[in-house]
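Work Package 3 (structural annotation) set out to generate three-dimensional models for the target panel prioritized at the project kickoff. During this period the team completed the workflow that converts sequence records into discrete structure tokens, so that structures can be stored uniformly alongside our sequence database. As a representative example, we reproduce one entry of 379 residues exactly as it appears in the project archive.
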Amino acid sequence: MRLSFKIAKSFLFKNDFSKNGVVNVVSFIGLFIGSLSIILSISVLNGFQNILKEETIKVNGEYLISNYNEVSDLSIIDEIKKNNIQYSIFDNEEFILSNNSSQKLVTIKNILNKNHLKFYKLNLINKEKVLKDNEMIIGKSLARSLNINVGDNVNIFSKNINLNSLALPRSTKFKVVNIYSNRILRIDDYLIFISNNDIINKDNLSLELIGDIENSRILEKRSLSWKDRNRQIFEATEVEKKITFFTLSLIIIIASFNLCSAIIQISSKKIREIAILMSIGMSKNSIRNIFILYSYLIGLSAISLGVLTSLFLIFMQNRFSIITLNPDYYLVEKLPMVISIFDIFYVFLAAIVIIGIFSIIPLRFINHMSPNQIINKQS
């Protein structure tokens, strides 16, 4: 293998590469652009996926435990405190929100303990995160649609209309003390935060958690992750990543066609040298290895350069925010870019397979080569 590698290097670097290796140059550039495009595109999709996760955790936590019972599930709270996990106990129900003549069906997250409001990382107009019994925090989009401002009083009605003794819908009045925004998930168009024990439904309690639950079987068994709770959105981004990977891999495939042509070209130019090597005892498999190594010298160097260049560009973007976005349209101020070691591994794996296939195809003619015939024809 060492001898094959040395011969492959000599074919590559001692054959007027800059003058006669135009096909090699084209192959190199194609593989470089292909790997660069894949890494950059996947990093952008990963970046937006991370933003989705961050914004979800801000209002819904990382994990959800539904059907929580304060009496029978005391062990859950013990596990949470034991593993130093943040948590919030709440009741989630739909109500009709009314302001003057405007009404809208909303979801109200009624937090059992006022201190648990600190669990949520809300982007608030006012920094203070304090709630009294008849106060609420409302979403920015919802406040705009119903013309609600901080300090306004609003009414909420149960969507299951229960009439009181005066034959009027039963309602509760709240004062809007803060407004939050969460444009990524559009949660601020329907979700309201309150902390009122008078209207909380203790038969419908749930827990939201932030932290590492892997050390607790009880929590792992009962919990739904943020991915499970947002499966449609998350799977959509995963499908988009796979489609992007496959589509941009076509650039590598096209470049590998050129690499295939380069192998045919170099093998035709070096046919006499190949015949001499075979005549002194080198096997046909060893001859094949020379050209396979030749193709990998070109291919993997191009892929490696493309990956390193993309990693440098990702670092520069994350450090200096070179590419900025209009937050009115893209919801973020800079282009997010995140890459993982697994993404890089898959790029190299795909490249190795594709290059290997296209380097083997043109070498079938070696099975029919006879060194004596070749030398006689060349002499």
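Residues 275 and 370 are 7 Å apart (CA to CA).
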